[in-house]
């Protein structure tokens, strides 16, 4: 197992549906991937929250996973979210992604029942034992219902060999401080909370996992570049410039807002699956205005 | 559509698995249903949280649903949980349950993404429009991630014709007060939080949705009888007598503790599906002690 | 030390101010006390939250304390709230109340800084050591900022001899269950959360600490009587009848709503001290309507 | 009214007590002030949380206020916390501080009762109307029990002329983003949460309100200097270097830890007032170790 160096702007893909919502629109998915890569993102992440991974059948999930990996074709690393409600299903997805060339798999301990720390650790261990691909541990209590403490995260990181990265999305910047401190600077962490983009980089995050580059890649990349250039003033200005859009897509829901934004730019990707609504007209108008300001 | 009168002790069934966890053990499921009915529960509810509904494949879900309905065979009403992550999947399950004879279907707005009130209403409306069976709306933010306000619940109740019952599991007794007050006594509500069994009946709940009758049916029924007999002192004494067990099964997780308890009484139902652990030895010993005290 | 048997409806007094707010209106205070006792409350509690104890100078606090005790004159037991921000000040108040005849003193661990469990225990111990009067421990995180766990409460109860009663105001009925269970039925607990009046009695509370009898004493007492008579149905009906008023006074703030209500009945007690506003006109109208319905 | 330019490191003073805790040790207070100024802090803030302002009698408060202002003697600006539980008392303190030369007064809406937005606004307006000195609005729900929304803060800022600065201590960095965005860069905000020192400066805070310079002034100042020099990498390294100490003083309580730290450096300032404990021996040892590492 060689761990790829994942850093910078990690672009999350949407999953385009046909007009009636029943089928995956693979050509549109290909275009959205190309657009992200052409615009300079440092990695591609299919089937995350933005990709409505939770709303796909197993067959659809496989289809999107296989297609995405083939289409990225190693131009940049690909990080496939393989979370599922049971350990057996998550293992199946992890193996599938590995077999089709995933550079990293991402695992959120999604579960209906609140899991104990031992259950979470065993879940990661079972997935880790079943593949040779690096795992990005993902903490996002807002969607998973499970908040992993920094101690638990470090325990998993130190116990499961191929857990080599941490994506933190609690929205509490102090979690990153603790990962940095208690991990003695040896735990690569990535930010998954858009409105914390500036602070996460200030705190030492290696990358920013975000769907925003579907809409404003240049600003996302410029923020990262300013950080690399050690230019805090420029980073701050770039952050505040894009913050209204970052807040908008968070508040409006990533699948709805990103799909609406892509539609505005000519890339038709269908609507989100119900019960998630497409962005309402007022929201589309607001999004249009926000994007216009950022041109 | 005739709405059945659902009241009293509504027993939730586990989903028994084979020893290796891969298959459903239908004979064991039948035995657990018979045991609940023989012990006097007023309704049977398969495929809820206790039934690990979220951890089943669609084929397994259909199998359990069909078998349970056939096996109950109208001895008591059956309430089938048909929650699923997308509206389309929940509709499919609701129709399936209806076609196989469900008296009521229960719907939790389970979703990966936080849903707006409009999205939740539309979800219920879509399910309601697709069947002629009464719907029990289920509010349980701890498992669904979505907390429906009393105002939203009443809006759905008043808007969607076949939403005729509300199961409340927030653990906040004041929600039931508000359902009673703002619903002007016309909204039948049911308690889904075991440690609130006494207070929910005091507040006017029509029934108690619980997995406890798998283990201590006589005490559950006696509490309800004391309430019907307007004997608060007896109800209080019965409540405190069973409270340690109610707290234990809540804290230990319903599938793990109920399956362990059934095993102690000779009804082998397998283990929960990973990532959920079976009850550890220390827990089994503690459960054994609790049950012995209640004999 | 003889512990008085405190039970039933414990009426909290307001602290009347002169029209310009600068002085205590003792005659009005006397009238409000007489009214509570004449209407049948089982105990009187001056200088609590309702009594704006936190907003008085030390001299004013002494004046109200001394006057109230003299005026009640042992017709019923008197429970004086002696909470203060430092241990030395709380000790001084406790001694003052004791010297002037208090039957019980009530102590909330009010503090600017979050206190450790050891600090809270020491605070109670210091007060307990300085007097021979029973202490009612008071848990109300919403006003004190400190939430005492049931374990801490029981530790204080078992460690400090004259802590012999617990007033619970978290609004979480399960705290009372735990006090009952872990205290093995030996810890007298009192409800301080008006909307939980019914459930607290169902759970075994010895009494209800409330400012409501300033306005609707008959209903408060009838609820308690129904509980004593083991008549759950009557208790439930009485509870729902008074619940809108209980919620109104909680939501509107006790000093503002109780003073407004007393004014409506002809007992002028001035306004609350700023920054607390008197009840606005719309609120007064609403209160008037609620009271009219309950006549 | 001339608004002083408040920026950089704003040092909070402790209030030294005599050995038996009954009197203020003014010479020690003078030494602690001199030490802060000699070490380069940009402003001095007496009687804040660190200064145990809430635990002083009115006479003591006046004594500390007057002495501190006279002793600082305009070497740097002085910001006096004048918060009190009633509006009348806060007005009195504000006038007192102004009369004795305060450059700024700081106001936390400390209150026993939860205040409405209108009540909070009126509180600030009453204080503002009574003085000609600039006011630093202070939001710290952990100690005041009142969390002011950004909208309310901006409303007060725009309505009350002499509210010209905002100190934010919720610990949520996104509050600062909103102050910056919705205030269109015109609302000077200051960080009051030690572990957010780096992120607050990254987000554009004008200063850092902290008791830490009593112990590690050089590191606090160096962090600010790195930010001024636009050197994010240096700022990050300086931040992580001092973070363990910042977390320690926050967790251990500022009066206890800062007084213990001053004692370690030879400046005896007595103990905090009960119920707050002095730092226990184990804590002193840990603090000694932390300080030694930072030398």
TrEMBL record, chains A, B, C, D:
Pfam families per record: DHDPS (PF00701)
Active site (UniProt): 138, 167
Positions of pyruvate binding: 50
Gene Ontology annotations of biological process type: N-acetylneuraminate catabolic process
Top-level taxon in the UniProt lineage: Bacteria
Any single Gene Ontology cellular-component annotation: cytosol
Lyase in keyword set: yes
Keyword field: Lyase
UniProt cross-references to CDD domains, sorted A to Z: DHDPS-like
Listed GO MF terms: N-acetylneuraminate lyase activity
PANTHER family: N-ACETYLNEURAMINATE LYASE
Family, similarity comment: Belongs to the DapA family.
Official protein name in the record: Dihydrodipicolinate synthase family protein
Organism (species): Pseudomonas lundensis
């Amino acid at each position: 197992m060689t761990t790829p160096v994942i850093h910078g702007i990690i672009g999350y893909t949407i999953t385009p549906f046909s007009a009636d919502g029943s089928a995956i629109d693979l050509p549109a998915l290909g275009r959205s991937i190309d657009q992200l890569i052409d615009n300079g993102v440092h990695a591609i992440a299919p089937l995350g929250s933005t990709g409505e991974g939770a709303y796909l059948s197993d067959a659809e999930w496989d289809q999107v996973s296989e297609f995405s990996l083939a289409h990225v074709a190693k131009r940049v690393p690909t990080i496939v979210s393989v979370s599922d409600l049971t350990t057996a299903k998550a293992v199946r997805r992890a193996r599938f992604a590995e077999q089709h060339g995933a550079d990293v798999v991402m695992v959120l301990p999604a579960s209906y029942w609140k899991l104990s720390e031992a259950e979470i650790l065993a879940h990661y261990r079972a997935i880790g034992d079943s593949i040779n691909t690096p795992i990005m541990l993902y903490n996002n209590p807002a969607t998973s219902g499970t908040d992993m403490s920094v101690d638990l995260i470090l325990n998993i990181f130190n116990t499961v060999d191929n857990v080599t990265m941490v994506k933190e999305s609690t929205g509490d910047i102090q979690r990153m401080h603790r990962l940095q401190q208690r991990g003695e600077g040896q735990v690569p962490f990535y930010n998954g909370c858009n409105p914390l983009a500036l602070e996460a980089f200030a705190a030492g995050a290696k990358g920013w996992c975000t769907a925003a580059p579907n809409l404003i890649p240049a600003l996302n990349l410029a923020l990262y570049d300013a950080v690399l250039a050690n230019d805090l003033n420029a980073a701050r200005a770039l952050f505040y410039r894009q913050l209204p859009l970052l807040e908008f897509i968070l508040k409006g829901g990533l699948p709805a807002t990103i799909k609406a934004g892509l539609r505005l730019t000519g890339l038709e990707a269908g609507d989100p699956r119900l019960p998630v609504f497409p962005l309402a007209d007022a929201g589309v108008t607001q999004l249009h205005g926000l994007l216009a300001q950022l041109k």
